[in-house]
Amino acid sequence: MSRIIAGAAGGTPLSSVPGSLTRPTTDRVKEALFSRLDAFDVIAGARVLDLYAGSGSLGVESGSRGAGSVDLVESEAKASAVCQRNADLVNGVVGRKAVTVHRSKVEPFLDRAAESAAWDLVFLDPPYPLDEVALAAVLRKLAAHLAPSAVVVVERSSRSPEPDWPDELERFAEKKYGETRLWFAEPYVPDAIGSDDLPAAAES
């Protein structure tokens, strides 16, 4: 059974999605992922987005660890209901509505997001049948809704190729855990000073 690993609700069991509707992140991978995110210091107070949320495990873990707000996006009815149960659990422990569930497909959700929306931490754990072209389209839409120092985490099969990052995103790390591979990306920031901008060397 999956559980919340740390934070205000640490140790609390989570509801799981019945059957094989989703591909949940194992507690081993989740623990390693959040250890890295803690090292990046991106969770406390962050605005978090969990796309293809499944049971909402990654999003509610963030809420337990002090995220400012968490949006769980899941289109399947049974999975969305599980997300809501897990969100209610964390919200009850932290004493506020830290986690909100949106029953929606990912691309329409991003299309509806306000232009001012700027998430600090985003999880994408798409189902394996989602092909690389569709994932690239989602990443392009997502890039318009990120804070300047955001971290994007994509979870895929270890046999899947690296995501096709849009120009606005740049991969900075990746890690394999058995059958799972995590890709880490951040908004691409061009060099402030290019070689063409440097002053010419003085003639001797």
TrEMBL record:
What Gene3D superfamilies does this protein's entry cite?
Vaccinia Virus protein VP39 (3.40.50.150)
The record's section on SUPFAM superfamilies has: S-adenosyl-L-methionine-dependent methyltransferases
* InterPro entries the UniProt entry points to: RNA_MeTrfase_RsmD (IPR004398), SAM-dependent_MTases_sf (IPR029063)
Name the keywords, alphabetized.
Methyltransferase, Transferase
Q: Which GO terms describe its biological process?
A: rRNA methylation
UniProt entry tagged with the keyword Amino-acid biosynthesis: no
Q: Tell me one GO molecular function of this protein.
A: methyltransferase activity
Q: Which protein are we looking at?
A: Methyltransferase
**Species, as recorded:** Pseudarthrobacter chlorophenolicus (strain ATCC 700700 / DSM 12829 / CIP 107037 / JCM 12360 / KCTC 9906 / NCIMB 13794 / A6)
